[in-house]
Here is the input.
Amino acid sequence: MTLRGVVLLCLLEAALIQAKGFSWGGPGNTGNGAVDPNTENLCLTDQASCGCCLMQQQIHRMKEFFNMSLNELEKELTKTKTVLNNVRASRSAFSVALTSQSKLECIGPYRDDKLIAYKHVFINLGDGYSVDTGIFTVPRSGVYSLALTVYSDAGSPGNTLAACAGLQVNGLVVAGPREKNMQDQEDSATIVVALHLKAGDKVAVNLPIGCFLCDDSSHYNTFTGFLLYATD
Here is the structure.
């Protein structure tokens, strides 16, 4: 072994022995907040070792800072994911038409009131609307916009035109377009309402006694609803 190697080993051993007297608090810190009086002024006599400890302190502070920042970012990410999931859960919209037949067909009049099952679906976001029953089941409490358009064709002038329907919630009619006369061969009517609905409410369109609707692929009769904002 060369003389240079021996000198380097000695210096390394001396540095390791001296490093045992230092903690994160700097030279002479015993770890419990007290300072060893024998090393209190070590920075004045051994600036290299003091600089090393100061650098270690800075590294330690940086680690603590970045750990805190990372924790805060993780918390904000969790909050953002929660908000995003709520937004996704709030997406509820449907728009349907009576039929898609190329030839004009009419339903009604019936002897009793009957729920209308709209068969053509434009959109059913959230799957709240049932094509089989014609009922929209409210997935989440909130304020909903609901629109209903009815159209009918009496066949010829002088016949009774009865384009009418009832928008109902849980079996109770809340509004309804109505166009009933003997002057028009064909006519339509539309209503738009905003209602505060609760999760589980049943929204449907009722065809009253004596009313009949006609439709084809032009989609004259439509039923539409969507959530404006949630209230739960």
